[in-house]
Amino acid sequence: MFAAVGLRHTSRSPFSDRRLPEPIQVRLEQEAGFECTLLRLLGPQDVDVVLRLAATATQELAADREHQAELAEWVGQPGETGLGVPWSAVGPRPDHEPGPVRDLGTAPGSPRQSASFELEPQLGVLSTARDRKEDWLRAGQGLQRVLLTATRFGVSTSLLYQPIELHDMSASQDWWPWPEHPQIIIRFGYGPSSGGAPRRPLADALDRG
Protein backbone atom coordinates (compact mmCIF):
# COMPACT_ATOMS: atom_id res chain seq x y z
CA MET A 1 0.00 0.00 0.00
CA PHE A 2 2.84 2.38 0.80
CA ALA A 3 4.13 2.03 -2.75
CA ALA A 4 0.75 3.24 -4.05
CA VAL A 5 0.82 6.51 -2.08
CA GLY A 6 2.79 8.38 -4.75
CA LEU A 7 0.64 6.97 -7.55
CA ARG A 8 -2.82 7.74 -6.19
CA HIS A 9 -4.56 10.76 -7.70
CA THR A 10 -8.17 11.72 -8.22
CA SER A 11 -9.36 11.32 -11.82
CA ARG A 12 -12.27 13.55 -12.91
CA SER A 13 -12.12 12.21 -16.47
CA PRO A 14 -14.71 9.88 -18.04
CA PHE A 15 -14.33 6.20 -17.17
CA SER A 16 -14.96 3.25 -19.47
CA ASP A 17 -17.96 0.92 -19.13
CA ARG A 18 -15.74 -1.86 -17.77
CA ARG A 19 -17.11 -3.14 -14.46
CA LEU A 20 -15.01 -3.83 -11.39
CA PRO A 21 -14.44 -7.58 -11.01
CA GLU A 22 -16.12 -9.10 -7.98
CA PRO A 23 -12.81 -10.05 -6.25
CA ILE A 24 -11.73 -6.39 -6.34
CA GLN A 25 -15.10 -5.27 -4.98
CA VAL A 26 -14.76 -7.74 -2.11
CA ARG A 27 -11.20 -6.57 -1.40
CA LEU A 28 -12.30 -2.92 -1.26
CA GLU A 29 -15.09 -3.79 1.16
CA GLN A 30 -12.67 -5.74 3.33
CA GLU A 31 -10.16 -2.89 3.47
CA ALA A 32 -12.88 -0.50 4.65
CA GLY A 33 -13.93 -3.03 7.28
CA PHE A 34 -10.41 -3.19 8.72
CA GLU A 35 -10.98 0.37 10.02
CA CYS A 36 -14.50 -0.33 11.35
CA THR A 37 -16.10 1.47 8.41
CA LEU A 38 -18.58 0.21 5.83
CA LEU A 39 -18.13 0.50 2.07
CA ARG A 40 -21.57 0.10 0.50
CA LEU A 41 -21.16 -0.58 -3.23
CA LEU A 42 -24.34 0.62 -4.94
CA GLY A 43 -26.53 -1.04 -7.54
CA PRO A 44 -27.97 0.93 -10.50
CA GLN A 45 -31.12 2.13 -8.69
CA ASP A 46 -29.20 3.29 -5.63
CA VAL A 47 -26.62 5.00 -7.88
CA ASP A 48 -29.46 6.99 -9.45
CA VAL A 49 -30.71 8.03 -5.99
CA VAL A 50 -27.25 9.21 -4.90
CA LEU A 51 -26.56 11.08 -8.16
CA ARG A 52 -29.84 12.95 -7.80
CA LEU A 53 -29.01 13.83 -4.20
CA ALA A 54 -25.64 15.13 -5.42
CA ALA A 55 -27.26 17.19 -8.20
CA THR A 56 -29.74 18.76 -5.78
CA ALA A 57 -26.98 19.54 -3.28
CA THR A 58 -24.88 21.10 -6.05
CA GLN A 59 -27.71 23.49 -6.93
CA GLU A 60 -28.18 24.54 -3.31
CA LEU A 61 -24.45 25.00 -2.71
CA ALA A 62 -24.20 27.08 -5.90
CA ALA A 63 -26.55 29.62 -4.29
CA ASP A 64 -24.31 29.97 -1.23
CA ARG A 65 -21.88 32.80 -1.99
CA GLU A 66 -19.55 32.10 0.94
CA HIS A 67 -19.29 28.46 -0.04
CA GLN A 68 -18.57 29.33 -3.67
CA ALA A 69 -15.89 31.81 -2.60
CA GLU A 70 -14.20 29.18 -0.44
CA LEU A 71 -14.41 26.61 -3.24
CA ALA A 72 -12.82 29.06 -5.67
CA GLU A 73 -9.85 29.49 -3.33
CA TRP A 74 -9.09 25.78 -3.63
CA VAL A 75 -9.38 25.50 -7.41
CA GLY A 76 -6.35 26.81 -9.26
CA GLN A 77 -6.60 28.98 -12.35
CA PRO A 78 -4.73 28.15 -15.57
CA GLY A 79 -1.02 28.74 -15.13
CA GLU A 80 -1.24 29.04 -11.35
CA THR A 81 0.64 26.88 -8.87
CA GLY A 82 -0.19 26.36 -5.24
CA LEU A 83 -2.33 24.24 -2.96
CA GLY A 84 -5.67 22.85 -3.98
CA VAL A 85 -6.92 21.35 -7.22
CA PRO A 86 -4.79 22.47 -10.20
CA TRP A 87 -6.67 23.48 -13.33
CA SER A 88 -5.14 20.53 -15.16
CA ALA A 89 -6.99 18.16 -12.80
CA VAL A 90 -10.43 19.82 -12.94
CA GLY A 91 -11.52 17.69 -15.91
CA PRO A 92 -14.29 18.16 -18.48
CA ARG A 93 -17.97 18.77 -17.84
CA PRO A 94 -20.37 15.81 -18.20
CA ASP A 95 -22.57 16.12 -21.27
CA HIS A 96 -25.56 14.70 -19.38
CA GLU A 97 -27.20 15.22 -16.00
CA PRO A 98 -26.90 14.14 -13.32
CA GLY A 99 -23.17 13.77 -13.90
CA PRO A 100 -20.94 11.47 -11.82
CA VAL A 101 -18.31 14.12 -11.01
CA ARG A 102 -18.36 17.39 -9.14
CA ASP A 103 -18.34 20.54 -11.26
CA LEU A 104 -15.52 22.71 -9.93
CA GLY A 105 -16.42 25.72 -12.06
CA THR A 106 -14.76 27.64 -14.87
CA ALA A 107 -11.87 30.01 -15.35
CA PRO A 108 -11.95 33.29 -17.33
CA GLY A 109 -10.67 32.71 -20.85
CA SER A 110 -10.38 28.95 -20.34
CA PRO A 111 -13.72 27.32 -21.14
CA ARG A 112 -14.08 23.68 -20.20
CA GLN A 113 -15.07 21.17 -22.82
CA SER A 114 -17.84 18.64 -22.27
CA ALA A 115 -17.31 14.88 -22.49
CA SER A 116 -19.38 11.71 -22.43
CA PHE A 117 -19.11 10.14 -19.00
CA GLU A 118 -20.19 6.61 -18.17
CA LEU A 119 -23.97 6.21 -18.13
CA GLU A 120 -23.85 3.63 -15.32
CA PRO A 121 -21.27 4.93 -12.81
CA GLN A 122 -19.91 2.58 -10.19
CA LEU A 123 -20.35 4.30 -6.83
CA GLY A 124 -19.60 3.28 -3.27
CA VAL A 125 -20.49 5.04 -0.02
CA LEU A 126 -18.02 4.91 2.86
CA SER A 127 -19.98 5.14 6.10
CA THR A 128 -19.63 4.82 9.86
CA ALA A 129 -22.09 3.60 12.48
CA ARG A 130 -22.05 6.99 14.22
CA ASP A 131 -20.88 10.51 13.39
CA ARG A 132 -18.51 11.48 16.17
CA LYS A 133 -14.98 12.84 15.91
CA GLU A 134 -13.49 9.39 16.33
CA ASP A 135 -15.74 8.21 13.48
CA TRP A 136 -14.33 10.92 11.24
CA LEU A 137 -10.85 9.58 12.02
CA ARG A 138 -11.94 6.02 11.24
CA ALA A 139 -13.51 7.24 8.00
CA GLY A 140 -10.25 8.87 6.95
CA GLN A 141 -8.32 5.70 7.68
CA GLY A 142 -10.90 3.60 5.86
CA LEU A 143 -10.83 5.95 2.88
CA GLN A 144 -7.04 5.74 2.79
CA ARG A 145 -7.18 1.95 2.59
CA VAL A 146 -9.89 1.93 -0.08
CA LEU A 147 -8.20 4.51 -2.34
CA LEU A 148 -4.76 2.96 -2.10
CA THR A 149 -6.13 -0.53 -2.70
CA ALA A 150 -7.99 0.73 -5.77
CA THR A 151 -4.74 2.27 -7.02
CA ARG A 152 -2.89 -1.02 -6.53
CA PHE A 153 -5.42 -2.79 -8.76
CA GLY A 154 -5.39 -0.11 -11.48
CA VAL A 155 -8.80 1.31 -10.53
CA SER A 156 -9.31 5.07 -10.87
CA THR A 157 -11.35 7.02 -8.32
CA SER A 158 -12.95 10.40 -7.73
CA LEU A 159 -15.04 11.75 -4.87
CA LEU A 160 -18.57 13.09 -4.61
CA TYR A 161 -19.28 14.89 -1.36
CA GLN A 162 -21.87 17.57 -2.12
CA PRO A 163 -24.77 15.90 -0.25
CA ILE A 164 -22.61 15.33 2.83
CA GLU A 165 -21.19 18.85 2.67
CA LEU A 166 -24.68 20.34 2.45
CA HIS A 167 -25.88 18.18 5.35
CA ASP A 168 -22.96 19.33 7.50
CA MET A 169 -23.86 22.95 6.77
CA SER A 170 -27.62 22.65 7.29
CA ALA A 171 -27.90 19.79 9.82
CA SER A 172 -30.84 18.44 7.80
CA GLN A 173 -32.77 15.40 9.03
CA ASP A 174 -33.92 12.25 7.22
CA TRP A 175 -31.88 13.14 4.16
CA TRP A 176 -30.04 9.83 3.63
CA PRO A 177 -31.73 6.59 2.46
CA TRP A 178 -29.62 4.18 4.59
CA PRO A 179 -29.22 3.86 8.36
CA GLU A 180 -25.45 4.38 8.64
CA HIS A 181 -23.76 7.80 8.53
CA PRO A 182 -22.20 8.56 5.11
CA GLN A 183 -18.75 10.14 5.17
CA ILE A 184 -17.82 10.20 1.46
CA ILE A 185 -19.09 8.93 -1.89
CA ILE A 186 -16.49 7.29 -4.11
CA ARG A 187 -16.68 6.78 -7.88
CA PHE A 188 -14.75 3.76 -9.15
CA GLY A 189 -13.81 2.82 -12.69
CA TYR A 190 -11.18 2.49 -15.35
CA GLY A 191 -9.97 5.66 -17.02
CA PRO A 192 -6.93 7.79 -17.84
CA SER A 193 -4.52 8.64 -15.08
CA SER A 194 -4.71 12.16 -13.74
CA GLY A 195 -1.90 14.64 -13.29
CA GLY A 196 -0.59 15.03 -9.78
CA ALA A 197 -2.03 17.61 -7.41
CA PRO A 198 0.26 19.47 -4.99
CA ARG A 199 0.71 18.04 -1.49
CA ARG A 200 1.05 20.06 1.66
CA PRO A 201 4.55 20.26 3.16
CA LEU A 202 5.09 17.92 6.11
CA ALA A 203 5.51 20.88 8.47
CA ASP A 204 1.92 21.96 7.71
CA ALA A 205 0.50 18.59 8.76
CA LEU A 206 2.72 17.41 11.62
CA ASP A 207 3.08 19.07 15.02
CA ARG A 208 6.35 17.90 16.49
CA GLY A 209 5.57 19.46 19.89
Under the CATH scheme, the architecture is: 3-Layer(aba) Sandwich
Number of helices: 6
**Average of per-residue pLDDT values:** 90
Strand count: 6
Number of domains: 1
Order of helices and strands: HEHHEEEHEHEH
CATH superfamily, called what? Answer: NADH Oxidase
Could you write a compact summary of the structure shown?
With 209 residues, the protein is of the alpha+beta class. 35% of the residues lie in helices and 14% in strands.
Describe the protein in words.
The protein is of the alpha+beta class. It has a single domain (2-76, 83-101, 116-194), classed as NADH Oxidase (3-Layer(aba) Sandwich), CATH 3.40.109. 35% of the residues lie in helices and 14% in strands. The protein is built from six helices and six strands; from the N terminus they run H-E-H-H-E-E-E-H-E-H-E-H. It has helices at 22-33, 44-62, 65-73, 133-152, 162-170, 202-205, and strands at residues 38-41, 93-94, 114-115, 122-128, 156-160, 181-189. The chain has a four-stranded antiparallel β-sheet, with helices on both faces. It has a two-stranded parallel sheet with strand order 2-3. It is globular. The model has no long low-confidence stretch (mean pLDDT 90).
